[in-house]
């Protein structure tokens, strides 16, 4: 009997705690709405999304704002013109035409005039004591940092008749962020059984949680400023910058241009601006594919870093001519020269030395056959059909990043494997889910296979450090006390009308990781169709350097040389 009494007491206490404490604010607002507007309004609720500061603190990325709706009951409003005159002094945005039209609806007891009034406006209107004025409370989604990380966050909006997360984390974690509508007058015994399941047996009816991102807001602000500078300076069609930990897959920053402000979506005319190019678009990446090709060939045992080949400046395969970016030959050149001078002929030599099947299998090992599984919605697959070709020319062009198109996040995962010992690591933007019952679920580092051996990872890193120290920007990018591994890429953009490539449109890319032999950060940049410039070394080297300097200082990275 004592046990039964105790169990009943626990159930009663759980239900009381749920109504008065856990959901107390919600039910207070719900009752307030019922008092003010006859129960026509439920208070909107949704979990928060947070940025993660370096020191472990949270900063709100998406939350809720509160205000009031100015509504009227035309059947009770005695003098419409006088009411409008007094109200417009407090809320000048009210349209007289609209107000008078709504007051003329004598058979309608409820008409909304304007939303999102402040507390002071609400108090001022109440002091007027005008019969027929209603001021129900409302809440809405707000993004305090405006457009910051907009492609990661997404927004909340209507999908047909449902008001749910659209795009980004808002969509991917809809099940965690959405809040079930409470019912103060739920059948008591139904509440008891729900309470027993939830509180006694630990069975949860939902996964309501706040979402904590790995996005660091100060790093995000920096990369967004650099993206804006690139768009402005080069008149580009699109820009993207991301910073990731290649050891864990944590993404500290991710931005793309054009961007949007989720607080003001009405100005956006093209819905494509809402998609995240890092996970939802594919590009021919150009020469940043060369380190992957060279490392694959080294790992397969067909070449070494000092393996030589005769570079004539071009090769002919299957009736097609492939040349270096400048058309010039270097004579005898090593695989290190291929990276130093970005030689297309050398990348093709390495891939063909491997053979079709081996090269294709290494591209699969680097993850290009699969999606990354990043925690963002609607990730696209890569376009790599050319890897299945029996023709040498398709393998050759793929070796230097043409003829196959991959998403930036897929490319980042593959590039991270060059520096982290050869492992594919699942990228993610969410660090943890903080559940409403007080516990957290951390996002764990997930290995998705090995691309190359640890020895090959060290070797390709050494080669890329030499590229930075001696060749990139003529050695001006070299950091005296830090080893940096990096490579640029410039790709021609496909012309869908004739199946060839534009001669005056380019896709620029750049990646680098540091400290090179135990990297903390991978920085990835791309720019589509910059105007008046051909090569990525001219456009992306400077912003990479600035981002690198900031990260070294902000995170107090210990020098490694």
Task: Please tally the β strands and state the result.
Answer: 21
Count of separate DSSP helical elements: 20
CATH superfamily (homologous) name of the largest domain: DD-peptidase/beta-lactamase superfamily
Helical fraction equals: 25-40%
Secondary-structure-derived class: alpha+beta
**Low-confidence runs of at least 5 consecutive residues:** 33-42, 183-192, 197-205
Distance between the termini: 73 Å
Number of domains: 2
Mind summarizing the main beta sheet?
Answer: 8 strands, mixed
Q: Residue-averaged pLDDT, rounded?
A: 90
- Oligomeric nature of the chains: single chain
| Fraction in beta strands | 15-25%
CATH class of the largest domain: Alpha Beta
Please tell me what the overall shape is: elongated
Indicate the radius of gyration in whole angstroms: 29 Å
CATH topology of the largest domain: Beta-lactamase
- Looking at the overall shape, the CATH architecture of the largest domain is 3-Layer(aba) Sandwich
Describe the structure.
It is a single chain. The chain is α+β, with helices and mostly antiparallel strands. It has two domains: 65-144, Penicillin-binding protein 2a (Domain 2), CATH 3.90.1310; 217-263 and 279-554, DD-peptidase/beta-lactamase superfamily (Beta-lactamase, 3-Layer(aba) Sandwich). Strand 12 and strand 13 (320-323) form a beta hairpin. Helix 3 (80-90) packs across helix 4, helix 10 runs antiparallel to helix 20 (541-554) and helix 12 crosses helix 18. The longest helix is centred in the first third of the chain and has 21 residues, at 2-22.
């Amino acid at each position: 009997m004592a046990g039964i009494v105790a169990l009943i007491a626990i159930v009663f206490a759980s239900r009381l705690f749920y109504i008065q404490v856990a959901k107390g604010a919600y039910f207070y607002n719900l009752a307030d709405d019922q008092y003010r507007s006859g129960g026509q309004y439920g208070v909107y609720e949704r979990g928060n999304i947070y940025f993660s500061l370096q020191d472990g603190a949270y900063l709100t990325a998406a939350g809720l704002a509160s205000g009031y709706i100015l509504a009227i009951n035309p059947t009770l409003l005695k003098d419409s013109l006088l009411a409008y005159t007094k109200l417009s002094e407090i809320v000048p945005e009210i349209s007289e035409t609209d107000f008078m039209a709504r007051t003329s609806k004598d058979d309608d007891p409820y008409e909304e005039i304007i939303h999102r009034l402040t507390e002071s406006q609400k108090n001022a209107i109440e002091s007027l004591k005008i019969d027929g004025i209603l001021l129900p409370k409302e809440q809405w989604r707000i993004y305090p940092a405006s457009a910051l990380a907009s492609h990661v966050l997404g927004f909340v909006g209507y999908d047909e008749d449902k008001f749910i997360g659209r795009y980004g984390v808002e969509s991917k974690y809809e099940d965690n962020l959405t809040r079930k509508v409470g019912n103060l007058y739920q059948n008591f015994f139904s509440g008891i059984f729900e309470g027993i399941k939830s509180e006694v047996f630990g069975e949860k009816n939902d996964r309501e949680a706040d979402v904590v991102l790995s996005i660091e807001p100060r790093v995000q602000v920096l990369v967004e400023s650099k993206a804006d500078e690139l768009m402005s300076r080069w008149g580009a069609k699109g820009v993207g910058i991301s910073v990731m930990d290649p050891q864990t897959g944590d993404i500290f920053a991710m931005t793309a241009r054009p961007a949007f402000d989720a607080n003001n979506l009405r100005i956006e005319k093209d819905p494509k601006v809402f998609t995240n190019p890092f996970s939802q678009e594919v590009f021919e990446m150009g020469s940043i594919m060369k380190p992957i090709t060279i490392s694959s060939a080294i790992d397969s045992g067909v070449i070494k870093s000092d393996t030589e080949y005769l570079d004539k400046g071009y090769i002919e395969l299957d009736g097609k001519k492939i040349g270096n970016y400048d058309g010039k030959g270097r004579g005898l050149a090593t695989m290190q020269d291929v990276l130093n001078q970005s030689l297309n002929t050398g990348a093709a030599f390495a891939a063909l030395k491997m053979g079709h099947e081996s090269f294709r299998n290494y591209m699969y090992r680097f993850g290009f056959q699969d999606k990354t599984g990043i925690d963002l919605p609607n990730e696209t697959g890569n376009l790599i059909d050319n890897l299945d070709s029996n023709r040498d020319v398709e393998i050759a062009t793929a070796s230097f990043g043409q003829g196959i198109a991959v998403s930036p996040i897929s490319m980042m995962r593959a590039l991270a494997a060059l520096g982290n010992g050869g492992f594919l690591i699942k990228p993610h933007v969410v660090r943890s889910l903080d559940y409403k019952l007080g516990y957290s679920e951390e996002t764990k580092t997930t290995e998705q296979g090995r691309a190359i051996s640890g020895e090959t990872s060290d070797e390709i890193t050494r080669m890329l450090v030499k590229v930075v120290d001696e060749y990139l920007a003529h050695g001006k990018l070299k950091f005296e006390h830090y080893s940096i591994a990096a490579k640029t890429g410039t790709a021609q953009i496909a012309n869908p009308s004739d199946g060839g490539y534009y001669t005056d449109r380019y896709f620029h890319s750049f990646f680098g990781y540091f400290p090179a032999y135990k990297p903390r950060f991978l920085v990835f940049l791309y720019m589509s169709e910059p105007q008046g410039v051909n090569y990525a070394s001219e456009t992306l080297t400077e912003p990479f350097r600035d981002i690198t300097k900031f990260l070294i200082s902000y995170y107090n990275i210990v020098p490694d040389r």
